[in-house]
Design a protein that fits this description.
The protein contains 13 helices and 7 strands. By secondary structure, the protein is an alpha/beta fold. The chain has 3 domains: about 5-145 and about 220-230 and about 315-320, P-loop containing nucleotide triphosphate hydrolases (Rossmann fold); about 155-210, Histone, subunit A (Orthogonal Bundle), CATH 1.10.20.140; about 235-300, Crystal structure of tRNA isopentenylpyrophosphate transferase (bh2366) domain (Helix Hairpins), CATH 1.10.287. The protein has a 7-stranded parallel beta sheet with strand order 1-7-6-2-5-3-4, with helices on both faces. α4 crosses α5 (about 135-145), α10 crosses α13 (about 290-310) and α11 (about 250-260) packs across α12 (about 275-285). The radius of gyration is 20 Å and the shape is globular. Mean pLDDT is about 90; it is low at about 1-15.
């Protein structure tokens, strides 16, 4: 997985390379934004906390973390999103967690607005913001200061929804893959909101959604760290984490969401794993929990591959091997 990446391996016997390469530039920046991204289960949370604590010791300035995981924006989705608990935050403020009801839609444009406002508030307090997560489009909305076209008219949206429903999005995804493969590689073919939105942009403007990247300079001084695991190790971590989620009560969590009146059609329940667990509870599909775990782990591995494809070639990212990283 790490092939071709600009990678830092950090060794305890010398001053960590990350501190040598990153910290001096952060110190000189008036509006720094440290972005920590990486595929799911790569270890971003622990790495961000360790980096934040080290930076606070080095600079004597507070670090605050801004969530960039689209699923962790939602209340009640804790276990299946690997959301950090308050007692795990090590006293570091975390923002944009639990800010939406599971029935609320969220767009990349709306997230961008919330993130910019939160980051500006952190700067105003004299603190240093970390943007941490793995939601590719949400991260890009901030890092690349994306501009978003206005919503298409209702008739086009209805037409696209009918096209999607005819074959579960297969023809629309094929169209998107042909016209804008970079955008298509960034999400699952069954992600209906993303797919319809991408086709809205294509059919309304004639332009590729991926071409919106880097449309304007980022308003912050970016320092982007990518956390990765070797492919085989990441697959094992995904399997272990999926099993741990079920052991921690993921099925009970989804049952509580059902009891609150949420359904598989609510925006939050389209999150990876949640719809599958709900189907298991309601229809016993698949027939065993073991099969369910395997199904979700496989889906998560495929998502991790799409994440790395999305970031491939972004030379701004300093990739850190999570197996040897030690701040």
């Amino acid at each position: 997985m790490a092939s071709g990446l600009h990678t830092v391996h950090m060794h305890s016997a010398e001053m960590p390379a990350l501190q040598r390469e990153l910290f001096p530039r952060v110190r000189q920046s008036a509006r720094p934004l440290i972005v920590i991204l990486g595929p799911t289960a790569s270890g971003k949370t622990d790495f961000s906390l360790e980096t934040a604590e080290t930076l606070q010791r080095e600079f004597g300035r507070i670090v605050e973390i801004v969530n960039a995981d689209s699923r962790q924006l939602y209340r009640y989705l804790d276990i299946g999103t690997a959301k950090i608990r308050r007692d795990e935050m090590r006293g570091i403020a975390h923002h944009l967690l639990d800010v939406l009801d599971p029935k609320e839609e969220i767009t990349a444009a709306a997230y961008q607005s919330m993130a910019f406002r939160t980051i500006d508030d952190i700067h105003a307090r004299g603190s240093i913001p970390f943007l941490v997560g793995g939601s590719m489009l949400y991260l890009s909305a901030v890092m690349d200061n994306l501009s978003f076209v206005d919503a298409a008219d209702a008739s086009l949206r209805a037409e696209l929804e009918r096209e999607y429903d005819r074959d579960h999005g297969e023809s629309l995804y094929a169209e998107l893959t042909q016209l804008d493969p970079d955008t298509a590689s960034g999400f699952h073919p069954r992600n209906k909101p993303y797919l319809i939105r991408a086709l809205e942009i294509l059919r309304t403007t004639g332009g590729r959604p991926s071409a919106m990247k880097r449309a304007a300079p980022c308003p912050y001084d970016l320092f982007i760290i990518g956390v990765f695991q070797p492919r085989e190790e990441l697959a094992k971590r995904i399997e272990r984490r999926t099993s741990a989620m079920f052991a921690s009560g993921w099925i009970d969590e989804v049952q509580s969401l059902i009891d609150r009146g949420y359904t598989a059609e609510d925006p939050a329940m389209k999150s990876s794993g949640y719809r599958e667990v709900m189907r298991y509870i309601q229809n016993r599909l698949p027939s065993t929990q073991r099969e369910l775990e395997d199904q979700i782990a496989g889906k998560t591995r495929r998502y991790a591959k799409r994440q790395m494809t999305w970031w491939k070639g972004d030379e701004r990212i300093l990739w850190v091997d999570a197996q040897t990283a030690s701040i």
